[in-house]
Amino acid sequence: MIIGDLVVRKSYGRDVTFRVEDVWRNNAIIKGIEFRLLADSPMSDLVKVPADPMNGITKQAQIKAYQSLSSLKQDRLQQAERGHALLDQSNASNASYFEVPGKVLHLDGDVNYLHKSLRLYEQLRVPAEGYYIHESAMADSLRKLLPRVRPDILVITGHDGVLKNRQPYDLYSLSSYKNSQNFVSAIQVARQYERNLDSLTIVAGACQSHFEALLRAGANFASSPGRILIHALDPVYVAAKASFTSIKDTVSMGDIFNNTISGSQGVGGIETRGSYRMGLPRLENLSTLKVTPSAI
């Protein structure tokens, strides 16, 4: 078995597919290909699987991810219809509007998931900047990034989990989690920058994160209420939903529960206004305008 191989764990019923990230002696560091899970495992517990693994959980996650993407695209169509309806109501039927969706700053502790996330933002036409930053360095990085990027939505994610070597573990204690304390520190820095929960929407957490601590620190949406594994793209769905929800409306928690891959046990949050704005009239192509200069 070598780095890059796809594997499952016998001791967990071969439930989740991983990629081998590192190998030393008789152990391996493995990373979930669909779920935000980083783990170590004895080589003897791993079984190599084909390049296109289709175990039950992986297949179900892929189907749900496709449905979530379809839901977001449907939201975009409905947003366009509402825009046209507003033009009709304002007797501006001869004009056309432009869109200002919320801008996302996405910090990810996993470079592969970051690239997947940025491709999805681009596909959905969500303006986004993304950076691969280790979870422990996110708080310091935000002190520089937030004033420069000035996002409407901040995603703080990567890897997390309840530590198996802390027995008996205490789910109320941040010390029982791999990276929840790092996420809390990053949220606190962000809230020092912007205290208003509707001016900066924060989506935070990863697999099994300390949901309650992330909300107390100032996150609008967080994982994981049921301490379950969350899908790699769940934070992206929530951010995109906030980006294209009107500032006059709150982000639908029902849509988040129904359309994130992990559901209500994976992601939760508080009432939060969207970040989408519509403008009039449509922005002109300045290269086609014929203008008579008037200034001296």
Could you explain the architecture of this structure?
- The N and C termini lie far apart (74 Å).
- A six-stranded mixed sheet has the order 8-7-9-10-11-12, with helices on both faces.
- The protein is built from seven helices and 13 strands.
- 33% of the residues lie in helices and 18% in strands.
- The longest helix has 34 residues, at 56-89.
- Helix 3 runs parallel beside helix 4.
Give the number of DSSP strands: 13
Given helix and strand content, the structural type is alpha/beta
Strand content: 15-25%
- CATH superfamily assignment of the largest domain? Response regulator
Number of helices: 7
Main sheet: which strands, in order across? 8-7-9-10-11-12
CATH fold node name of the largest domain: Rossmann fold
Ends distance: 74 Å
Estimate nothing, just give the exact number of structural domains: 2
Helix-strand blueprint:
Blueprint: E1 6-9, E2 18-24, E3 27-32, E4 38-42, E5 46-48, H1 56-89, E6 98-100, E7 104-108, H2 111-124, E8 128-132, H3 138-149, E9 153-157, H4 180-193, E10 201-204, H5 211-217, E11 221-222, H6 234-243, H7 253-259, E12 268-269, E13 277-279
Parallel strand pairs: 7-8, 7-9, 9-10, 10-11
Antiparallel strand pairs: 1-2, 1-5, 2-3, 3-4, 6-13, 11-12
InterPro entries: Peptidase_U57
Pfam families: Peptidase_U57
Protein name: Sporulation peptidase YabG
